[in-house]
Known about the structure:
Elements: E1 6-11, E2 21-25, E3 31-37, E4 41-47, E5 53-60, H1 67-82, E6 90-97, E7 101-102, E8 107-108, H2 122-130, E9 134-138, H3 139-150, E10 159-164, E11 168-174, E12 177-179, H4 210-214, H5 216-228, H6 233-240, H7 246-254, H8 258-282, E13 286-290, H9 298-311, H10 314-317, E14 321-324, H11 331-344, H12 347-353, H13 364-367
Parallel strand pairs: 3-6, 6-9, 10-13, 13-14
Antiparallel strand pairs: 1-2, 3-4, 4-5, 7-8, 10-11, 11-12
Helix pairs in contact: 3-11, 5-6, 5-7, 5-8, 7-8, 8-9
Amino acid sequence: MARGLVVEGRLGPSTGGRAPRELRFRADAGVVLAAELGATSTTVGLTDLAGKLLAHREEPWDVAAGATATLDLVERLFDELLAGRPSGQVWGIGVGLPGPVEFASGRPVAPPIMPGWDGYPVRDRLARRYRAPVWVDNEVNTMALGEYRTGIGRDVRDLVYVKIGSGIGAGLISGGRLHRGAQGCAGDIGHVPVSDDSRTVCRCGNLGCLEALAGGVALARDATEAARHGRSEFLARRLASGELEARDVSQAAEHGDPVAVELLTHAGRLIGVTLATLVNMFNPALVVIGGGVAESGDLLLAAIRETVYRRSLPLATRELRITRSPLSNRAGLLGAAFMVLDELFSRARLGAWIDQGSSVGRPELSAEQERLPERGSGIGR
């Protein structure tokens, strides 16, 4: 209250004695910048201190263009969101990247689809530019966090968020906390081997990875091959107009194309087999399916559900729900903002900035992550 973060509100109803005075958190005291970098698009947003999305921007972008060019774009979009606002309002910045991230340092580590990003100091660059603490994580972790805090996973303390896009990954909420693992790469199911087929080389360099056989890039590749060999008239017509994408396979399936139906069903079964292992091991109450490919209709989701329920233990699936994410492409953006808020208001950091009333101008707060004991996200507090 002395720092203006909590203010008195109206009187509450009396239960016999003096009416209580309600207290209100001033969510408008500052803003958080958030960015979600996907393989083919970049989305940024501005939230208040309660995680409410105030504005956002999205642009098509190839993350393989490199760290410098991509972060130039992110900074331009951030500046657009901040235009017209008083300076000194940015409390923190959250970033989700489409690859493995060492959470303690905020650096990507050998990301398969991000050439030139290995070891790049994402956190340090943005911290210098905006004079604010910055946290960086894998985008699927931020999606899981966003779904847990604001979506269908709200108040579900054990859930798995699965992103099916160009690649495939999973974020794990365990006991109300985001589980990152020892170095930050927990949940990377896209590189679980599901085949010994030596013809299919994954972008990580290994053979038979799940995303190499069932991700969006794999669907587009297999659909293109089918079209060129005359197995699908629908896909052949689409190919004549340009390169095929996963959404073309979905649209072909909606028109009853048997090849497209086969491709989506096969992908769903491979994903389902991998998820069944995760369900047996982790025993979540909810599996949320998100990402661009997951929005392609019910066929893929149905194949995933059928396989998980058939291949998992009865006790593990007794009350298990498998459903599509209602947040669409906002889950990662909101999760990136909540990642910042959870870190700032954690017991480990609150005392470092509360005396000055905000974390504005304190980029060193996120650098202290490397010196803090390993722990999960503070979302369970």
